[in-house]
Specification:
By secondary structure, this protein is an alpha+beta fold. Helix content is 16%, strand content 34%.
Length: 237
């Protein structure tokens, strides 16, 4: 990367920490040990490529561009919690949000990502694409307020609780009995009037005597499992 390009990228990072107009990707401004601050860029991916004379990776609009002073920026599909923790922060790197009363009315397309089954290898190849979250398109009238039930109203009822200015967590199922149990939890964050990012978490753990555990394992039944599926919802028209 040339010094000219690096300098331009530094200026772009400063400029992008403004209210987004046509945002498509997130930026994480991080320090070595002080965590990160995150927000949507005030650029489309195409604008970024044109201005910097660089080529963004495939799927960049669903990725985060990480910048640490003194280092080259890089694209990553890692969760912003992971990014923040890597640089000494704690928990989710919440997006600095735009000034808006809510998402735009119109047709919204939900696109589910690939489930992370690293904590549940026995289900690899057995879980459908999208995991617990299925892709769909529906027309939504938000009435000026973001509530995730409008995006998920085609499925079972979810107990939604607000956890941030534009962030919600919802429990679909939670049955915990001592050291055993299962739960399904969703999360959604409105990142700009045309973009919602979310995730679906499925966990279970079964505590049984060793003899029974051995039998169940031989039948392909895991004793514990955790799957994490990201998704995005965009206004398409």
């Amino acid at each position: 990367m040339t010094m000219r390009t690096y300098g331009l990228l530094t200026l772009l990072f400063a400029a992008c920490f403004a209210a987004p107009a046509h945002a498509e990707f997130a930026i994480a401004q991080c320090s070595i040990a002080g965590g990160c601050s995150c927000r949507m860029a005030d650029l489309t991916v195409a604008d970024f490529e044109l201005l910097t004379n660089t080529t963004a990776p495939d799927g960049a609009r669903d990725m985060t561009l990480v910048h640490v002073p003194g280092s080259d920026p890089y694209w990553t599909s890692a969760d912003r919690t992971q990014i923040n923790n890597t640089y000494g922060g704690t928990g989710q790197c919440d997006l600095e949000l735009f000034n808006s009363h809510g998402p735009e009315d119109g047709n919204w397309k939900i696109t589910a990502g690939q489930p992370d089954l690293s904590a549940c290898p026995m289900l690899k190849g057995k879980m459908p694409a999208g995991g617990m979250m299925q892709s769909a398109t529906r027309r939504i009238e938000w009435e000026g307020t973001f509530h995730p039930s409008r995006l998920s109203d085609a499925g079972p009822p979810v107990d939604w609780r607000k956890v941030g200015r534009n962030s919600w967590r919802g429990t679909l199922f939670n049955d915990q009995r001592g050291t055993s149990g299962a739960k399904v939890v969703h999360g959604m964050t409105l990142e700009n009037p045309r973009l919602i990012r979310g995730w679906s978490l499925f966990e279970f753990k079964i505590e049984v005597p060793a003899e029974e555990a051995a039998i169940l394992s031989s039948m392909g039944m895991p004793m514990q499992c955790r799957s994490y599926t990201p998704f995005v919802a965009r206004r398409t028209s």
